[in-house]
Amino acid sequence: MGLPSINPTTTKSWKALEEHFKSVKDLEMKDLFAKNKNRANDYTIEWEDFYIDFSKNRITEETFKLLLSLANEVKLKDAIEAYYNGEVINKTEERAVLHTALRGKKTDTVLVDGENVMPEIFEVKTKIEAFTSNIVNGTRKGYTEKAFTDVVNIGIGGSDLGPAMVVDALQYYKNHLTTHFVSNVDGDHVNEVIKKLNPETTLFVIVSKTFTTQETLSNANTIREWFLNHGSQEAIAKHFVAVSTNIEKVKAFGIDEVNIFPMWNWVGGRFSLWSAVGLTISLAVGYDNFNSLLDGANKMDNHFKTEDFESNIPVILSLLTIWYNNFFKAESEAVIAYSQYLNQFATYLQQGIMESNGKSIDRNGKPTNYQTGTIIWGEPGTNSQHAFFQLIHQGTKIIPADFIGFGKSLHGNQDHQDKLISNYIAQTEALLNGKTKAEVVKQLESQNLSKDKIEELTPFKIFAGNKPTNSIFIKKLTPESLGKLIAMYEHKIFVQGIIWNIYSYDQFGVELGKQLASEILNEFDFNTIANHDASTQNLIEFFKKIR
């Protein structure tokens, strides 16, 4: 069956939303709260340890109904069934999209080409569990019989961003192993990491589906050369493992076949942390915590799959993005996590969201006549309040923002947590209400300023307010709640792609520059240069002079 291919702008709901937008685009959210005293409750979902308040959005009851109608009209329910049933929804690459299966239950049945993949998934999970136990407990040792102290993950894109973000987010739960990540082909990156390592006690995890990715293989070979200055060729088998599908290339590198963890072509890189790509996560926080991460994601999977759209968290968040992106013409969304543990979360989402939905060709192979994709950015609060919040509060752009907060401090410092969460709540209130001219004048008058000075300062201190936010409040940052949060955004990506009628699971846009880079690399050592534009030619010549 695959996915439906419906241009959203041709639907009745989209046309109705266009008309509706004209009448509500200037509405003040403050007025909506004043008219409906129960608005906060009407637009809040409490699910397990999650509390989602989307009442501070520029929507009315009619807006919400029309957005839900749009979801139905583009046959979102059918698309969700195809997604979970292992149908080939990544049509351009002829693949199913089944990262949800990776966190499924052992008793589930998920068919790919008529075969149930769950036994194979659990076979790999068992292997991850045993390997993790042996490394963490010191049963498995290095070539000098010393226990491992450090783990280095070598990968890029989804083979780096997901594991790196989760390990950072769950550092409270980490064990004694020190984890490092090498991704950039910049040689200074890998050499700075090597400086900190003892080859006798370091385990290297090379993550590359094809074992041909330039950045990953360059870093792996550099580390291999460094390692061989200390250990023998035979020692590589004790210190290097791989997550890959290319067994022959991995073996040629020197890695024992027993130390290869498989991947599947029905898992895209940016959704792969739930697979053996998450081996470094398991090593860093222990297998039980890694499994809890998967369980949390599975709970969100079930919520998304079974919940009615009007109370379905990923669906609602997706529809709000559509509303701002396609009707208010907002180009970006901020993700502000009030937890230093989530300092890499927005970076991780940038790949997940922008690589998935940064498309301009629809599922019919036609150019889209509407905007797709959103620019994702953000930093943790309260740091971000002292950086870019000025633009959100008083700038000229509409920037919807997700505010993520946790009720409990992991280290139990209530004073700090109270200050953190007071800022978390206050910022959404400030973005909603702003500050009126009358309020500014009253405040300035209390400072005994002259009338002229008050008139001069007043325009600069007014806040328009009416800035949309979602409050995602979670009781505590645990492996399980993090799994739920990541899966929530994964399903949001899926819903947006369905509504925009694009294929979210390929990424051809990353290939062209990489292909050209290979050609240019070859030109650095030869006198002849291929036919480039004048600017590119000059850059090549300049680099050859200074290298």
Number of H- or I-type helical stretches:
23
Q: Please state the overall shape, judged from the principal axes of the Cα atoms.
A: globular
- Considering the protein shown, what is the CATH homologous superfamily of the largest domain? Glucose-6-phosphate isomerase like protein, domain 1
Number of DSSP E strands: 13
Q: In the CATH hierarchy, what is the class of the largest domain? A: Alpha Beta
User: If you compute it from the alpha carbons, what radius of gyration comes out, rounded to the nearest whole angstrom?
Assistant: 26 Å
Describe what is shown at a glance.
48% of the residues lie in helices and 10% in strands. The protein is α/β, with parallel strands linked by helices and 547 residues long.
